[in-house]
Task: structure prediction
Amino acid sequence: MKVAFLASEVIPYAKTGGLADVAGALPKFLAGLGAEVRVFMPLYREVRKKDLALEPVIAGASLPAGGAEGTYGVLAHRGDGFTVHFIDRPGYFDREALYGTPAGDYPDNGERFAFFCRASLEAMKATGFVPDVIHGHDWQSALTFAYLRTAYADDPWFGRTRTLFTIHNLAYQGLFEKDLLGRIGLPESLFSMDGLEFYGRVNALKAGILYATAVTTVSPRYSREIQTPEFGCGLDGLLRSRAGALHGILNGVDYKDWDPATDRLIPRNFTPADLAGKAACRQALAGEFGLTAPADRPIAGMVTRLAGQKGLDIVCRALDDLLGLGLVPVILGTGDQEIQDFLLSAREKNPGRIGLRIAFDERLARTIYAASDIFLIPSRYEPCGLTQMYAMKYGTVPVVRATGGLDDSVQEYDARTGRGNGFKFVEAEAGPLTEAARRALASFRKPDEWRKLVGNAMAADFSWNRSAADYLALYKKIASD
Ligand code: ADP
Ligand code: GLC
Result:
């Protein structure tokens, strides 16, 4: 099974969120199951800076007439179990950030990622790679499927190729003005309601939903939610029309990378059998932030994009009550200015009681997973969510809103049966979050119960093995249809 994997961020090369974790780990596990995976991604400045041994594969190529203008190169890197092909076009990708700056998205993102999609298809041809399946992720890769329906519809190279599109986040759709189509070599005839048109604009994500052989989302529950108006972001009707080809496959964790017994970025390693290292991590984190965190007050970690999706507004409204309960919040995140300002002023008002760092920092993220007692994820929606899975592995008990992948991966703890790995609340309000935190606190203050709960969380198995097998089965199914 030959698979071309297109993603706009991939660890360890470039990352802004969970997509990078998935796109860096899943190919490795697919390769372990015998698939040959080639990953395609843009050559960002962030990648250049890493000084990797990159092998030039194509130089000075240009897209066929009618595509976006400009030349490009392709450089390859042998990753862990798979090869990455970087699309090199400095004018588009040698920039400070992947998608935009705090001032907003780059205005030419439509051209940039259309170019990435088309150049990836050309690179497959130029390097002799005939994919059985092209698997694209999120809107940045979705226009690939529009090209395959138009400019490449009769290209024998892709005559047997089937396609899979994975939605990691339906809210990011890639919306552009109508004239984008002409500039990127797609016919204006695609600008209709049953094509890429969406309220007067071009919707890149629609290309994935409409034209891919099959569509997946990153948890079973989210695959159902997005077919409702509440979570459908205006596309629920379209998604319902593709219900037969829509599947939910829960993301996994690469436990070789995420293991408190071996993680080199945390202050001390630990295992389920010996949690002394976890206590040392806790002490180190409290020290780093100058926090007063006696043993009877749980540290409540958060590692998150500061975006509406993540429910930070709910935390802000619940903050006084959470502090009143004795929780010690430690938050690491970047994003929305308004949320940053609120958190910064809350910290000022509560010296020594809130840890806050506005940054993207892998070391600190892992230290927070390792050092915290509980982990707060009050998301308004969550396609899968990886942070609850990482937290559990590091012995930190999740308190989450029951939505999307959070609902699929967290089971409410039941003290009578000793089953469950966390705490959940349903309504996206401060009161229910505080109530769930209160239940967590009650368990935390009963050492035997807490030990059991932490053990359950650490034993939860979200390894990619199972989900990678599900993806491979789906590839085989669509390839034989
Ligand atoms: P999303 O992709 O919606 O942001 P996920 O839970 O799937 O949410 O994945 C988030 C990923 O990004 C995790 O690997 C998390 O550790 C990481 N992350 C988020 N914010 C930060 C940050 N400020 N610093 C370091 N890592 C972060
Ligand atoms: C998206 C979602 C997140 C998911 C991640 C990886 O960014 O917001 O829930 O875990 O993609 O699939």
Summary: The longest strand covers residues 55-62.
